[in-house]
Automatic annotation (TrEMBL):
Keywords on record: ATP-binding, Nucleotide-binding, Transport
Name used for this protein in its record: ABC transporter
GO molecular function, one term: ATP binding
Organism in which the protein naturally occurs: Amycolatopsis camponoti
PROSITE patterns (UniProt xref): ABC_TRANSPORTER_1, ABC_TRANSPORTER_2
Gene3D superfamilies from the UniProt entry: P-loop containing nucleotide triphosphate hydrolases
Length: 286
């Protein structure tokens, strides 16, 4: 598996001198091609700054970002971003179809090809029937699907997602998480998701990068050994999920990786034992 993204010694400061604020401090990591990785950390730790640096929207103060081995200076053509605030990222005066087509207008792509790509992307996210509607006529979850479709229409090598499901209800979040995993499997797109939701980071990912409080540094790089086929109920109830969730939670609260693993394993065993007792009790009572 080849390296898609390499971040090396990345730091970013806002301001200068005594009033300078260090948002990101000496971060280094790689993401392999076809991988879905999550970055999870406390609110205000510098996650979004890191993502903007990776996207080429904000130049790092120190260090480098490379895509396909080429240094990122400005936004690469084969990179797309899905932001949290879907209501501000869509043009309300354009139809859904035209919103998805819009970024393609700046490429050497014919009008027919733009329409074809947009239609294909809308089908992938389950919105084929609403291409003629306007964003304000759709629910929040559907608007975020449009944002995802617009990103997919550009056929990016790397898709960045900044807290993409934070503004939708729990059921819609589950649907969008499953949509993201399905698209990643079908297209082999490399995806990097920034989130503060522990459960989401574990459920979505092949890897979870855990960040410290500001200034952000990497506390742990965890491999997620869950099956590729995941279910919002059974996966979240599994011992593996409970263990990983506990491990990430303890790391975010300042624990060491070794402490986090031990505590999370104990918690998972206790959880399974309690469920077994409840099942036994139910059978006895009946």
């Amino acid at each position: 598996m080849s390296t898609m993204l390499e971040v090396s010694g990345l730091s970013h400061r806002y301001g200068t001198g005594a009033k300078a604020h260090i948002a990101v401090n000496d971060l280094s990591f790689t993401v392999e091609a076809g991988q879905l990785a999550s970055i999870v950390g406390p609110s205000g730790c510098g996650k979004s700054t890191l993502l903007r640096c990776v996207a080429g929207l904000t130049p790092p103060t120190e260090g480098t970002v490379s895509l396909h081995g080429d240094r990122v200076n400005g936004v690469p053509d084969d990179l797309a971003v899905v932001f949290q605030d879907y209501s501000r990222s869509l043009f309300p005066w354009l139809s859904v179809q035209k919103n998805v087509e819009f970024p393609l207008r700046w490429r050497s792509i014919s009008r027919a090809e733009r329409r074809s790509r947009a239609a294909e992307a809308l089908e992938q996210v389950g919105l084929s029937a609403v291409g003629g509607k306007f964003p304000w006529q759709l629910s929040g979850g559907m608007q975020q699907r449009v944002s995802i479709a617009r990103a997919l229409a550009s056929r990016p090598s790397l898709l960045l997602m900044d807290e993409p499901f934070a503004s939708v209800d729990a059921q819609t979040r589950f649907e969008l998480e499953d949509l993201t995993r399905r698209v990643q499997r079908e297209q082999g797109t490399t995806i990097l998701v920034v989130t503060h939701d522990i459960d989401e980071s574990v459920y979505l990912s092949d890897r979870v990068l855990v960040l410290s409080k500001s200034p952000a540094s990497i506390v742990a790089d965890l491999r997620v050994g869950l099956p590729a086929e995941r279910n919002q109920i059974t996966t979240r109830e599994s011992a593996e999920f409970v263990t990983l969730r506990g491990e990430v939670a303890r790391l975010l609260q300042g624990g060491t990786p070794a402490d986090a693993v031990a505590a999370a394993s104990d918690a998972a065993e206790w959880d399974l034992a309690e469920r077994a007792k409840n099942v036994t009790g139910s059978k006895t009572g009946s």
